[in-house]
Design brief:
- The structure holds two protein chains of two kinds.
- Chain A is an alpha/beta fold.
- Chain A folds into two domains: about 180 residues, Rossmann fold, CATH 3.40.50.970; about 130 residues, Rossmann fold (3-Layer(aba) Sandwich).
- In chain A, helix 3 packs parallel to helix 4, helix 8 packs across helix 12 and helix 9 crosses helix 10.
- Chain B has 15 helices and seven strands.
- By secondary structure, chain B is an alpha/beta fold.
- Chain B has one domain: Rossmann fold (3-Layer(aba) Sandwich), CATH 3.40.50.
- Chain B starts with 11 loop residues before the first helix and ends in an 8-residue tail after the last helix.
- Chain B is about 45% helix and about 10% strand.
- In chain B, helix 10 links the parallel strand 6 and strand 7.
- Chains A and B meet through helix 3, helix 4 and helix 5 of A and helix 7, helix 8 and helix 14 of B.
Chain lengths: ~325, ~375
């Protein structure tokens, strides 16, 4: 297996899907001639040309809506938002058009679009650029929401998302783009709705998604080494559809849960999962379900303080110890 | 920029002589009138059923504007597509949707075009290149551009006709579209149906206007034209130029048709008459600018139609609308189980993707 960056894993996914399906087209700000603001689409315009890799003006409502309209005619647009935070400008198109068109047309129209880009805080760019909208979007029936934490997952999930016939909101992370991971040479797909057990364990389940689950993994290592506590780490990978079985199976095994989540706490993804666990696994629980989320305030600019807002490793460890 | 014919009344006879209209047989022309009548009778019956408590929600009547949808949609070829806003009954019937499926949708029945899930504002028929029916003002303008993008991407000779109202021109997304459509050479035609009121706010109170709304296309380097929407020949002649531009040059156009709705913004708009617009104004438009009456007079004047034939046609349209109400009345309500259908393609089709993971969170 090759050790490649998360961004290059995505790049490979785009390249393979462009070659596989003539209806796949990458569209967004700076994706073509500039090679992508975060170099995720590096080299693709040179390789595939103007038709398949398309720059747009800074008009998120316009170009996201354009992608939705084109997908209704059978194209498979892969739309880049330079930051998922900018989805607010295109929210009407995503929520009212992409998500509702199939339902409101009684199933006559579908929308096989992927909208993708980084959705994370932690880069000292202020609150407007640091949203994690997976919880907002997973709230909307009709949308699918995916968060990839590793290079391997990013590639496999992206290829599946592009082939999916429903609108898929794909969350990446600027803090992960440069992280290397092993990616097989041969083609592979990862289904949406399948969680990944990133670490087996028996005492406490740490469940989450995106970069937060990598914090969970680090916490698990330290807990094992320093406290002899064995944590099972479940990476959801896909928020909607959600792998409920994997979550419940882990809780039934460990009887203790700490949910980690870069979302804000109110109605964050972990809130939904906490509700699910108490409803379906109440008798399996030996302790209340714990959550470690971003702190409940807008993202701080000052990097030293912003860091405190995240579900950092020490906060996860503290929660695990509190219920162990 | 404006290369289209002068829309002054003096020029009117020329529109019926425009090449695209000269091609019409007498029966084609009668069909245009019939289509307008069908839309009107459909909506009149719909209104009476609404008032009788048979349906709910909003109903935005198109009555008074029929010539715009009928004229423009009559020009559609195989790769021409239509999308519009929430005042969508006229366009739906104009592209060939049946009264039954439309009326049943108003009734919220399972036999409705959207299986009772869309309602008055959300009619769709992709098999007829009709993409709705959209509830958010201006929200369809990027979708219309996307249809044009799809047409061009596939290398087809076609156009996307995207209708919008005079209120929608003040939504930001519309200008993003004008810029992008021109920049990317997209075959989209924005058709502004200017009925002078965005809900209860008059044109003068909502828009800064130099000469007309369509000329806002000028700064984007987009060809534009303003014309009278009450004359179906004029609508066809002016729209055809835009369609040819889309087909042959892959360039966008902004059209503006002056028109008028006889009823309020929606059925919930009790203040329209004598409120934000004078009763005399409504009467004047009904008397002197009703597209059905105008075209009827024209066809009778040309000896193509008699009063008796008109009455027959009108009665037949009324009977068809009544029958559609009967059909809707007798149709079953959607099953509760259909609530979870048509949300996800993959779930509906029972694909592996649709069977993997939890898609719905009710329990």
């Amino acid at each position: 297996m090759a050790l490649i960056e998360y961004r290059d894993a995505l790049n490979q996914a785009f390249s393979e899907e462009i070659e596989r399906d003539p209806n796949v087209v990458l569209i967004g700000e700076e994706v073509a001639q500039y090679d992508g603001a975060y170099k995720v689409t590096r080299g693709l315009w040179k390789k595939y040309g103007d038709k398949r890799v398309v720059d747009t003006p800074i008009s998120e409502a316009g170009f996201i809506g354009m992608g939705i309209g084109a997908s209704m005619l059978g194209l498979r647009p892969v739309m880049e938002l330079m930051f998922w935070s900018f989805a607010t400008v295109a929210y009407d198109q995503i929520i009212n058009n992409a998500a509702q068109i199939r339902y409101m047309s009684g199933g006559l129209i579908n929308c096989p679009i992927v909208i993708r880009g980084p959705a994370n805080g932690g880069t000292s760019v202020g609150a407007t650029h640091s949203h994690t909208p997976e919880s907002w979007l997973a709230n909307i029936p009709g949308l699918k929401v995916v968060c990839a934490a590793t290079a391997y997952d990013a590639k496999g999930l992206m290829k599946t998302a592009i082939r999916d016939n429903d609108p898929v909101m794909f969350m990446e992370s600027t803090l992960l783009y440069g992280e290397k991971g092993e990616v097989p040479e041969e083609e592979y797909l990862i289904p949406l709705g399948k969680a990944d057990i990133k670490r087996e364990g028996k005492h406490v389940s740490i469940i989450g998604h995106g970069r937060a689950i990598l914090m969970g993994l680090k916490a698990a290592e330290l807990l094992e080494a320093e406290h002899d506590i064995s944590c099972e780490v479940i990476d959801l990978r896909s928020i909607r559809p959600l792998d409920e079985e994997a979550i419940l199976a882990s809780v039934r095994k460990t009887h203790r849960v700490v949910l980690v989540d870069e979302n804000k706490p109110f109605c964050g993804v972990s809130a939904q999962i906490a509700s699910m666990i108490q409803e379906k696994c109440f008798d399996d629980l030996d302790a209340p379900v714990q959550r470690v989320t971003s702190l409940d305030a807008p993202a701080f600019y000052s990097p030293q303080v912003e860091k405190l807002q995240f579900p950092e490793v020490h906060r996860i460890i503290a929660k695990v110890l509190a219920i162990s | 920029m404006n290369s289209l014919p002068d829309p002054s009344p003096v020029a009117k006879p020329e529109y019926s002589q425009a090449e695209i209209n000269r091609k019409l047989t007498t029966s084609d022309r009668v069909e245009l009138l019939r289509k307008m009548l069908q839309i009107r009778r459909f909506e009149q019956v719909g209104l009476s059923k609404y008032q009788g408590g048979k349906m709910s929600g909003f109903i935005h009547l198109y009555i008074g504007q029929e010539s715009v949808a009928v004229g423009a949609c009559s020009l559609m070829g195989e790769h021409d597509h239509v999308i519009t806003a929430y005042r969508c009954h006229g366009h739906a019937l104009a592209v060939g949707m049946s009264m039954n499926e439309c009326m049943a949708e108003l009734y919220g029945k399972a036999t409705g075009c959207s299986k009772g899930k869309g309602g008055s504002m959300h009619f769709f028929a992709p098999d007829k290149n009709y993409w709705g029916g959209h509830g958010i003002v201006g929200g369809q303008t990027p979708l219309g551009m996307g249809l044009a993008y799809g047409i061009k991407y596939k290398g087809l000779k076609g156009a996307a006709l995207c209708f919008l109202g005079d209120g929608a021109v003040n939504q930001g997304a519309f200008y993003e579209c004008l810029n992008m459509a021109s920049l990317m050479d997209l075959p989209v035609i924005y058709v502004i149906e200017n009925n002078r009121y965005s809900m209860g706010t008059s044109l003068e109170r909502s828009s800064v206007i130099k000469n007309c709304l369509a000329e806002r296309g000028e700064v984007f380097g987009i060809e534009w034209a303003q014309a009278k929407g009450e004359d179906v020949d004029e609508v066809r002649a002016v729209t055809q130029i835009a369609i040819e531009r889309a087909h042959n040059e892959s360039r966008p156009t902004v059209l503006e048709f002056d028109t008028y709705r006889h009823y309020g913004h929606s059925v919930a708009d009790a203040k329209h008459k004598g409120g934000y617009r004078a009763a005399e104004e409504i009467e004047k438009y009904k008397k002197d600018h009703d597209p059905i009456q105008l075209y009827k007079r024209q066809l009778i004047g040309e000896g193509i139609l008699s009063e008796e034939q008109f009455t027959e046609m009108s009665d037949a349209a009324k009977a068809e609308a009544d029958a559609s109400a009967q059909f809707a009345e007798e149709s079953p309500l959607p099953e509760a189980g259909s609530i979870f259908e048509d949300v996800y393609y993959e779930v509906d089709r029972g694909t592996e993707a649709g069977r993997t993971g939890k898609h719905f969170f009710n329990d």
